[in-house]
Amino acid sequence: MRADAVRRRQNIIEHAKHVFAERGGDVALEAVAAASGVGIATLYRNFPSREDLVRAVVQDTVEQITGAVDEAGSALDTDPSGAWKDLLSRLMSMKLGALTDGLALQAGSARDLDSTPLAQVQQPAVDALNSMLAELNRHRAVRKDLTALDVIVAVATITRPQVSPIRGAAPGVPEQLAEAYLLWSLGGS
Amino acid sequence: MRADAVRRRQNIIEHAKHVFAERGGDVALEAVAAASGVGIATLYRNFPSREDLVRAVVQDTVEQITGAVDEAGSALDTDPSGAWKDLLSRLMSMKLGALTDGLALQAGSARDLDSTPLAQVQQPAVDALNSMLAELNRHRAVRKDLTALDVIVAVATITRPQVSPIRGAAPGVPEQLAEAYLLWSLGGS
DNA sequence: TTCTTTACGGAGGGATTTCCTCCACTTCTA
DNA sequence: TAGAAGTGGAGGAAATCCCTCCGTAAAGAA
Fold this sequence. Notes:
Chain A is an all-alpha fold and 189 residues long. Chain A contains ten helices and no strands. In chain A, helix 4 runs antiparallel to helix 5 and helix 4 packs parallel to helix 8 (123-138). The interface between A and B is large, with 42 and 42 residues.
């Protein structure tokens, strides 16, 4: 594979993540190509089917998550709730909507979601998050009924883009919700 | 207008609210008709254009909101934070996603959103909510930087339906977020 | 630089989806 | 029960989306 082609491919994944998160997992692939500044043929050459692209996006997001857990986890013993706060803010800045949307795309057809290829791809992220939560629990840093999936879905929900009902209004709602969730997650039982 | 026709019309509005909230403001009108158990022609006779239907849905939602404010507001003086909690839980059970989505639909074309017909239709709800917030503020019952639009957008965000990434997982996230938001909204500055 | 190989872009045909009207039929109500 | 009011869904027009094909452009080796 030629060097510039590799860059382009990664670039498509990156932009696809944004477009998926912003316009849903069923956008026209032409929109993804346009957003990536790339012809539609190039997109199809790299990702023959929509599912290939979705898988790549999910894969990429999963790596982002495990990376964030690793980095935030380093401060786990010295400052547990600081580490949690850090991790949460990292997660909030990702486009997790693309991940849940991508997975949701398969929900329609598949009967047993747990066995779909995508569900398996995301497993490392779930595992990493869960073990971090377990560790935080030992430190009594977060409420103990939190699960990795709860956190992922909550963050995806909060950060999902949304046009406000009146121009210029309520631009800070996601930040408010993030603050609320942090407060709640730290809180008792 | 015949008696059964009025019932049908109201029924369409009700179902449209759910379908809009669940599948976005740009669903096929056929889906709305099907959900309402009604032929597509009936829908078009009642609402010649998509905007007519959206307007009706928004109108209906606005009335729901002002109604909820009235009811919850009755306990305002005796138990302010109880009233707030009550109102919030009422709002959470509405399909506010339909409202924000409907308004967002116009955001694409209109330059000045404040002057669109829909933005004016929602005004009563915003006003009612804002005056209740002002009252609650006098009682020091909620944080003082809350605005009606913040609340509406936050509730819409929280209650927007979302498929969880793995079957059976994280079904309680909206409830958790609602709890978090309540906690936060009561909290200090 | 030159040549070969790899990769690109976008037109466009086919399939699908959505819109919306038209009219034969059904259901109210006076 | 007659007439008015209302209904459903087939189906044509238009828009949208998918995906391939092929002439052109750019990268990298010699």
